[in-house]
Amino acid sequence: LGPRDDWFTREALETLATRAYRVSTASNRIGLRLDGPPLERAVPGELPSEGMVLGAVQVPPDGHPVVFLADHPTTGGYPVVAVVREGDLGAAAQAVPGTPVRFVPVTRRGPSGGGPR
Fold first, then answer.
1. Rounded to whole angstroms, what are the CA distances from 94 to 6, 31, 32, 41?
2. What's this model's pTM, rounded to 2 decimal places?
3. Tens digits of per-residue pLDDT, 20-47?
4. Which end of the chain is more exposed for a tag (fewer CB within 10 A), N or C?
5. What average pLDDT does the structure give for the chain?
6. Structural domains in the chain?
7. Rounded to an integer, what distance in angstroms lies between the CA atom of residue 70 and that of residue 76?
8. Are 83 and 59 within 8 A, CB to CB?
């Protein structure tokens, strides 16, 4: 999970971890835009701009996640619910529109429950 996962409801985090998304035709080298169930925020409003990293999963007001890729902006103002592991970014970058995408929460030691975040 990401640095702003607390901006989302518990149901949204469960949705992210259990439901499938599909790569949108609006995807590009900046971001992998995903179609699927929107993620509901627990905190209203917007953030001031903050630094973004490769693999950040930013969620704009429409609730549809965007995975930042090679040409992503260096700052952004929407909450980052998760960050894709570096080892999984290559497959994400090569995903074509319509490709199914699943998010699996992991810890430093492996899948959920294996150790500290």
1. 30, 11, 10, 29
2. 0.88
3. 999 999 999 999 999 999 999 999 888 8
4. C
5. 91
6. 5-103 (2.40.100.10)
7. 15
8. no
